[in-house]
């Protein structure tokens, strides 16, 4: 559910996302891969949990 996803993101990333990387130009990310999946058969290479883990590590590495 959306609530479960929000909790997962909050649990894994909230501390990291309070500090944006200094040179970040991105203020909001919105994406929907359904069209890409439908037209190309693309599937993600990592799970949601692994992607959140990698995102957290990236924020820690770039935010200092």
List keywords for this structure.
mainly alpha, 0% strand, 61% helix, 64 residues, globular
Report on this model:
With 64 residues, the chain is mainly α. The chain contains 3 helices and no strands. The radius of gyration is 14 Å and the shape is globular. The N and C termini lie far apart (33 Å).
> How many beta-strand runs?
0
Low-confidence stretches: none
Shape: globular
Distance between the termini: 33 Å
**Relative helix content:** 55-70%
| Helical run tally | 3
Structural class: mainly alpha
Major sheet description: none
Radius of gyration: 14 Å
The helix/strand series, from N terminus to C terminus, equals: HHH
Strand content of the residues, in percent? under 5%
Mean pLDDT: 77
Sum this structure up briefly:
The chain has 64 residues and is mostly helical. Helix content is 61%, strand content 0%.
Task: Annotate the secondary structure layout.
Layout lengths: L1 H16 L16 H7 L7 H16 L1
Helix pairs in contact: 1-3
